[in-house]
Each structure stands twice: as structure tokens, then as C-alpha cells.
Amino acid sequence: MQNKEFFLNPGELIFSKKEIVIKTILGSCVAVSLHDKKNKYGGMCHFLLPESEQNVISTKYGNIAVLTLIKKFLKAGCSVESMEASIIGGAFIMFNEKEIFFIGDRNSEIARQILKNHKIKIKSINTGGEHGKRVIFNTYTNTLIVQPLELTSIDDLYNPSK
Q1: Domain ranges of the chain
Q2: pLDDT of res. 54
């Protein structure tokens, strides 16, 4: 039986009690995968910006997405002690020569900080660089495959077949 596959778009989150494969593509965005070793549950969030503006609740922001993912695990009966996370993405992608915001670094840092504050073990970190990443995550086995993408512009990130 083949596992169901889901593509995770920016601003989305998936939590599953069943074995699925989550795929996504990252530039300056960050994905956090979370796995519960005891129950074999898994999930991932993919966010674009580190922090939401006041009164804006959306998983396109890291401070909302990572907390929402953690809450899904806790609500399903998982314990922090049996969870481990991976942080992927956060590349330095220049939107244009005049605008440098270091969004990738800030996205990576907010993910690290939230996981640290919740005492969740970070299994791996694959962040930074100047190229995007293709990610494949099996929620049951906690297998994470990260492949570099040779991108020349932000347009290539969402049209990788060019």
C-alpha cells in the first residue's frame, strides 16, 4: 500500500495520526516537522514570515504556525518528551537588490526559539544558504529528505519545472 502524499503550500499546516508523506518547497520560508516517537504521529507547518502583526492569527506566520502545530500534538495526547522536531529552509533569497530583510534567518530563529521554549528536542536543522530546498517528510518514520534547489530568482521557487 502506497502512502498518501500531500503538498504543503506556504501558510499551511498538516497533522496526521496516520502515515503520510508531506512534500514542500522552501526558499526564505521555513518548515518545521514534528514527530511523536511514541505514537508515530507527525506533522509539518510551512510559514512565510516570523511574527504576525497584532490581532492577525494566521499560520503564514511562524509564531502562530509552530505553536498551532505543537498544540495539535498535545491535544492528541502526545507528550513533549516524546516529540522531536526538524527545522528546514530559511534561505537567503534576494527579492531585489534594494530590499534585504533577512527573512530566512528571522524565520529560522523564531522556530528555534519556540521549540526551545516548549522544551522540544530539535533533531536536525537544515537552514540558511542561498538556494531553496525541496522537502519530503514521512510522518510515521520521521524520515526527512532535503534536496537543494538551484534557483536563480524568487519566481523559480514556485515554478521549479522551468
Answers
A1: 4-153
A2: 80
User: What is residue 131's predicted lDDT score, i.e. its pLDDT?
Assistant: 87
Is 64:130 a contact under the CB 8 Å cutoff?
no
User: Nearest to residue 31, comparing CAs of 6, 56, 55, 4?
Assistant: 6
Q: Which residue has the cell 498551532?
A: 68
**Which ranges of the chain have pLDDT less than 50?**
152-153, 162
Q: For residue 29, indicate whether it is catalytic.
A: yes
CA 44 – CA 110 distance, rounded (Å): 15
Pick the CATH number of 4-153 from 3.90.950.10, 3.40.50.10300, 3.30.1330.200, 2.40.440.10: 3.30.1330.200
Q: How many other C-beta atoms are found inside a 10 Å radius of the C-beta of residue 55?
A: 5
C-alpha cell at 107: 524565520
Q: Point out the catalytic residue in the list 14, 29, 66, 157.
A: 29
Placement of cell 522537502 in the chain: 135
